[in-house]
Amino acid sequence: MNKKRIFVAGHNGMVGSAIVRQLKALGCVEVITHAKSELNLLSQADVKTFFNENNIDQVYLAAAKVGGIVANNTYPAEFIYENLTIQNNIIHSAHTSGVNDLLFLGSSCIYPKLAVQPMREDALLTAILEPTNEPYAIAKIAGIKMCESYNRQYGRNYRSIMPTNLYGENDNFHPENSHVIPALIRRFHEAKLAGDKKVIAWGSGKPMREFLHVDDMAAASIHVMNLSNDIYKANTQEMLSHINVGTGVDCTIRELVETVAKITGFLGDIEFDATKPDGAPRKLMDVSRLKSLGWEYSISLENGLKTTYEWFLNNQNNFRK
Predict the structure, then answer these.
(1) Beta-carbon contacts of residue 128 (< 8 Å; ≥ 6 apart)
(2) What is the mean pLDDT of the chain?
């Protein structure tokens, strides 16, 4: 029996690499990956040729240009252009080459800035987006609608999942362009090494956020991809085809900061600079649909932060800039 050939786009990223690890652990599939030097996902011709020549059975579309608030504010054109181009090329070429199963990975930023908490799937397109990451969010919304459109017109099985804030192995620990958890880990680690007596955290510490370990995200991705059509369709609707992925549990930024300080061994004081912006007061995903499909998270925030810090320590020479 031939092994199922699965293409993971974005296999070097945090989510893609976690999906690859878990797929390979299954041992019954053939995982196909290509580095940027081998396959330019921004090239329509290159992507089309790849699909025509490789007889792919399933696609995990984890490739994307991602970054924190600074990066989104600084490079909005690149964020909307590159993400639209990558997903357009992959989804359309998957279809034209006969691939029936595809999983598109989005982001919780698709929901309105002031969405009712916890955020349900039906909040999509009900109000304005957060301006700082609107180009990225619009690209992801387009990806959802593209999958829905190919399903409606061609009967494809293209599914979309929207993760909450992710962290873990292979995260981006850049001092300026990273998300909150890797930024905090690096800041507290370097403060400990420098013998600093105080670390200043932005904002009041009062906003609440939800975080999911990337290994849980990968497990949820594989679970949703392999649900039978009957089960999947019974728990989704045509206009609500995307599924939230998260823990359904949040914490204050203060609690997060204090936990990171403890895990990294920083013994100094923590001061919150309330003159800096807090952002939305709360961002929590409603994950009842995912639970009804038989999946729940398993990695607690503290345990996930511990393993992430261990990975950071073992790999910090790779991102010492």
Answers:
(1) 112, 113
(2) 92
